[in-house]
Protein backbone atom coordinates (compact mmCIF):
# COMPACT_ATOMS: atom_id res chain seq x y z
CA UNK A 1 0.00 0.00 0.00
CA UNK A 2 2.95 2.34 0.18
CA UNK A 3 3.38 3.06 -3.51
CA UNK A 4 0.98 4.11 -6.24
CA UNK A 5 3.43 5.69 -8.67
CA UNK A 6 6.39 4.62 -10.75
CA UNK A 7 5.16 1.48 -12.51
CA UNK A 8 2.92 1.05 -15.56
CA UNK A 9 1.24 -1.96 -13.91
CA UNK A 10 -1.90 -1.42 -11.81
CA UNK A 11 -1.48 -1.58 -8.05
CA UNK A 12 -3.35 -4.50 -6.49
CA UNK A 13 -4.22 -4.53 -2.82
CA UNK A 14 -6.06 -6.94 -0.56
CA UNK A 15 -8.13 -5.46 2.26
CA UNK A 16 -9.30 -7.84 4.98
CA UNK A 17 -11.42 -5.20 6.75
CA UNK A 18 -13.17 -1.88 6.31
CA UNK A 19 -10.26 -0.28 8.17
CA UNK A 20 -7.81 -1.59 5.57
CA UNK A 21 -10.06 -0.35 2.74
CA UNK A 22 -10.14 3.07 4.43
CA UNK A 23 -6.34 2.98 4.82
CA UNK A 24 -5.92 2.24 1.10
CA UNK A 25 -7.96 5.37 0.35
CA UNK A 26 -5.78 7.40 2.70
CA UNK A 27 -2.65 6.12 1.00
CA UNK A 28 -3.95 7.09 -2.44
CA UNK A 29 -4.91 10.54 -1.13
CA UNK A 30 -1.23 11.27 -0.44
CA UNK A 31 -0.58 11.13 -4.21
CA UNK A 32 -3.48 13.39 -5.29
CA UNK A 33 -3.37 17.06 -6.22
CA UNK A 34 -5.69 19.71 -7.65
CA UNK A 35 -7.33 18.59 -10.88
CA UNK A 36 -7.12 14.87 -10.16
CA UNK A 37 -10.11 12.61 -10.77
CA UNK A 38 -10.65 9.27 -9.02
CA UNK A 39 -13.15 6.96 -10.74
CA UNK A 40 -14.45 4.22 -8.42
CA UNK A 41 -16.26 1.07 -9.49
CA UNK A 42 -17.52 -2.02 -7.70
CA UNK A 43 -20.68 -3.82 -6.70
CA UNK A 44 -23.19 -2.37 -4.26
CA UNK A 45 -21.64 -2.90 -0.83
CA UNK A 46 -18.08 -3.38 -2.10
CA UNK A 47 -16.70 -0.50 -0.05
CA UNK A 48 -16.49 2.43 -2.45
CA UNK A 49 -17.73 4.88 0.18
CA UNK A 50 -15.39 3.40 2.82
CA UNK A 51 -12.49 3.92 0.40
CA UNK A 52 -13.68 7.51 -0.20
CA UNK A 53 -13.85 8.13 3.56
CA UNK A 54 -10.15 7.30 3.76
CA UNK A 55 -9.43 9.45 0.72
CA UNK A 56 -11.14 12.54 2.11
CA UNK A 57 -9.50 12.11 5.52
CA UNK A 58 -6.16 11.84 3.71
CA UNK A 59 -7.00 15.10 1.92
CA UNK A 60 -7.49 16.88 5.24
CA UNK A 61 -11.29 16.83 5.43
CA UNK A 62 -12.28 16.65 9.09
CA UNK A 63 -16.05 16.33 8.64
CA UNK A 64 -15.90 12.83 7.15
CA UNK A 65 -17.62 11.65 3.99
CA UNK A 66 -21.10 10.30 3.50
CA UNK A 67 -22.54 8.72 0.39
CA UNK A 68 -24.09 11.37 -1.87
CA UNK A 69 -26.46 8.86 -3.50
CA UNK A 70 -29.54 11.02 -2.99
CA UNK A 71 -27.93 14.46 -3.39
CA UNK A 72 -25.51 13.31 -6.15
CA UNK A 73 -22.63 15.64 -5.13
CA UNK A 74 -21.11 16.37 -1.71
CA UNK A 75 -18.45 19.03 -1.43
CA UNK A 76 -15.85 19.06 1.31
CA UNK A 77 -13.09 21.47 2.28
CA UNK A 78 -9.73 20.09 3.24
CA UNK A 79 -6.26 20.80 1.92
CA UNK A 80 -8.13 21.59 -1.32
CA UNK A 81 -11.75 21.29 -2.48
CA UNK A 82 -13.04 17.72 -2.69
CA UNK A 83 -16.07 16.89 -4.86
CA UNK A 84 -17.64 13.51 -4.06
CA UNK A 85 -20.00 12.47 -6.84
CA UNK A 86 -22.30 9.44 -6.91
CA UNK A 87 -23.87 8.75 -10.31
CA UNK A 88 -25.78 5.62 -9.24
CA UNK A 89 -29.18 7.33 -9.52
CA UNK A 90 -28.50 9.29 -12.70
CA UNK A 91 -30.32 8.18 -15.83
CA UNK A 92 -28.20 9.58 -18.66
CA UNK A 93 -24.85 11.08 -19.54
CA UNK A 94 -26.67 14.34 -20.31
CA UNK A 95 -27.97 14.48 -16.74
CA UNK A 96 -24.43 14.10 -15.41
CA UNK A 97 -23.15 16.81 -17.76
CA UNK A 98 -25.94 19.12 -16.54
CA UNK A 99 -24.78 18.55 -12.96
CA UNK A 100 -21.54 20.30 -13.94
CA UNK A 101 -19.28 17.26 -13.72
CA UNK A 102 -16.93 18.45 -16.46
CA UNK A 103 -16.39 21.74 -14.64
CA UNK A 104 -15.68 19.90 -11.38
CA UNK A 105 -13.18 17.58 -13.08
CA UNK A 106 -11.39 20.56 -14.64
CA UNK A 107 -11.51 22.63 -11.45
CA UNK A 108 -9.12 23.34 -8.63
CA UNK A 109 -10.06 20.36 -6.46
CA UNK A 110 -10.08 16.58 -6.44
CA UNK A 111 -13.15 14.86 -7.91
CA UNK A 112 -14.15 11.43 -6.58
CA UNK A 113 -16.78 9.57 -8.65
CA UNK A 114 -18.62 6.50 -7.38
CA UNK A 115 -20.21 4.20 -10.01
CA UNK A 116 -17.87 5.74 -12.60
CA UNK A 117 -18.45 2.82 -14.99
CA UNK A 118 -21.88 4.36 -15.72
CA UNK A 119 -20.28 7.48 -17.22
CA UNK A 120 -17.20 6.03 -18.92
CA UNK A 121 -17.26 8.36 -21.96
CA UNK A 122 -17.16 11.42 -19.69
CA UNK A 123 -14.10 10.36 -17.73
CA UNK A 124 -10.83 12.06 -18.62
CA UNK A 125 -7.94 9.85 -19.68
CA UNK A 126 -6.01 11.10 -16.64
CA UNK A 127 -8.56 9.59 -14.20
CA UNK A 128 -7.20 7.27 -11.54
CA UNK A 129 -9.39 4.17 -11.78
CA UNK A 130 -10.13 2.23 -8.60
CA UNK A 131 -11.97 -1.10 -8.82
CA UNK A 132 -13.11 -2.76 -5.60
CA UNK A 133 -14.19 -6.40 -5.78
CA UNK A 134 -15.82 -8.36 -2.98
CA UNK A 135 -18.95 -7.85 -0.87
CA UNK A 136 -20.22 -8.73 2.58
CA UNK A 137 -17.61 -10.40 4.76
CA UNK A 138 -15.33 -11.21 1.81
CA UNK A 139 -11.88 -9.60 1.65
CA UNK A 140 -11.70 -6.77 -0.87
CA UNK A 141 -9.43 -6.82 -3.90
CA UNK A 142 -8.61 -3.21 -4.75
CA UNK A 143 -7.05 -2.45 -8.13
CA UNK A 144 -5.70 1.05 -8.74
CA UNK A 145 -4.81 1.99 -12.30
CA UNK A 146 -3.09 5.36 -12.30
CA UNK A 147 -2.26 6.85 -15.72
CA UNK A 148 -0.53 9.83 -14.03
CA UNK A 149 2.48 7.61 -13.35
CA UNK A 150 3.15 6.60 -16.94
Structure description:
The protein has a single domain (34-149), classed as Rossmann fold (3-Layer(aba) Sandwich). The protein is globular, with a radius of gyration of 14 Å. It contains four helices and seven strands. It starts with 10 loop residues before the first strand and ends in a 5-residue tail after the last strand. With 150 residues, it is α/β, with parallel strands linked by helices. The chain has helices at 18-29, 48-58, 93-98, 101-105; strands at 11-15, 37-42, 73-77, 81-86, 110-114, 128-133, 140-145. Helix content is 23%, strand content 26%. The chain has a seven-stranded mixed sheet. Strand 3 (73-77) and strand 4 (81-86) form a beta hairpin.
Layout of SSEs?
Layout lengths: L10 E5 L2 H12 L7 E6 L5 H11 L14 E5 L3 E6 L6 H6 L2 H5 L4 E5 L13 E6 L6 E6 L5
Helix pairs in contact: 1-2
